[in-house]
Amino acid sequence: MWKDFLKNTIKAGKKLVMSDIRYIKGKEPHPRETRVIFKNVDREGWDPSIDCYMKDGGYEMLKKGLKMTPDEIREEVKTAGLRGRGGAGFPAGVKWGFIPPNNEKPVYLICNADESEPGTFKDRYIIHQDPHQLIEGMVLSCFSVGAHLAYIYIREEFPEGAQILEKAIEEAHANGFLGKNIQGTGFDLEIYVHRGAGAYICGEETGLIESLEGKRPYPRIKPPYFPAAMGLYLCPTIVNNVETLCHVKHIIEVGGQAWAKTGKPNNTGTRILCVSGDVKKPGYYEVQVGHVTMGELINDICGGLKDGRQLKAVIPGGSSAKVLRADETFTVGRGDDAKEISIWDIPMDFDSLAACGSMAGSGGVIVIDDSRSISWVLNNINSFYAHESCGQCTPCREGSLWMKKISDRIVAGKASPEDIDTLESVAYNIDGKTICAFGEACSWPTESFVAKFRDELTADTKEDLSGDIVNQESELAAAGLK
Ligand SMILES: Cc1cc2nc3c(=O)[nH]c(=O)nc-3n(C[C@H](O)[C@H](O)[C@H](O)COP(=O)(O)O)c2cc1C
Ligand code: SF4
Description:
The chain is an alpha/beta fold. The chain has helices at residues 2-11, 18-22, 50-55, 60-66, 70-80, 92-96, 123-129, 131-145, 159-174, 205-212, 242-254, 256-259, 294-301, 350-355, 374-388, 394-411, 417-428, 438-459, 466-478, and strands at residues 107-113, 147-154, 190-195, 237-241, 263-264, 267-268, 270-277, 283-288, 311-315, 324-325, 329-332, 339-342, 364-369.
């Protein structure tokens, strides 16, 4: 299949991109994986063309779905219990139901392909290697919510992904899966690729919408600007993550009830975990939600920690998730079912990670071993958030920078023990006091690192900073500023 693809691409005088070459390889998934969304990722001989996709049964679910009613599709998605894979884990079918009844305005659907949360690297592989899976999921979703215009908002740093999507959209058009009167059903849909300018805040759905409207991506306040009611051009708009939208096709294939049997109750289906940091085999792994524990993920699937190293901490859902300390114990379950577990036994699902005081977030699992300085890790995270704040609200704009500056000083050994209290108080003065959830995203790391690693952070501070003040003064004098 890939040979035909390469031949045709060259014959058509088109440039080959890196991702075209990658498919030649093929890589076996780990036996603990259940590949649904990633079925074709790294599959021997697979290529991203529509021919390859259709030979494998591609677009058959679209044909099936177009024979259903829009409400039937939404009910299947609801029954499946599909929770959003972009960060908040909100049930997709419920969100779709928030479009006001008797709405007379156009409805839009936006695929969030910004993938900006540090530690997350799954959506780009779906787009690079299986773009038609996303398009099929989007057409089904648009048909269900009544959208005739949809956008894929992809971050600036993914030029190759944008190119692949443009080509896939062209192919879907040529085969009657997009455009006017799709498959003779009378349903019309256009999908456009919109490239962002490379800002984390464009991943936040209302910032994304502002950006799509051609403005600065200043997030909107909710309420009233819940996108499903007042989104793009103040019309009802469904924003869903790439992985979420891909699942719709598979739900239509097996039915919501059967789909809900994978994973575990309220945490259904599969999800792609992106593991980075101090493990032997970092990478992406698609597992049934809740079917592997943190320990199985790290030791079994990812080959364990690096030789001679001990686990220090894990950030389980992208950099904004609260850190879990290796020697903590956690209470999961309620009433008679409640039990104390260690970090190794946490099931990797939405509810368990929330019960442990963190979140499954975007699926980016960052593993930290005992070779890492906690001050350095926190400083790294704080530097990112200080750079990415959109600046619209004062606590976030000023506070994210203060947190970075204080953690800069801790790393440089120029902070006092009181600075740790100041750092903590800055974080709590951002959390819950801003327009968008970036406020929590940037304050939760500091709150949790200080709560759990105060001793280690304090060990990097100094009681007596007088020498440093002298140094600073002499540095200023040397620069002619004093
Ligand atoms: C600061 C911030 C950044 C975000 N970045 C992304 C992102 O890159 N991709 C994404 O899908 N969702 C991101 N989200 C979540 C979106 O706002 C939105 O909830 C999501 O796209 C909805 O899709 P889902 O329900 O399918 O998860 C972000 C949220 C916040 C607060
Ligand atoms: S919380 Fe931060 S990122 Fe969100 S609107 Fe306010 S300043 Fe912008």
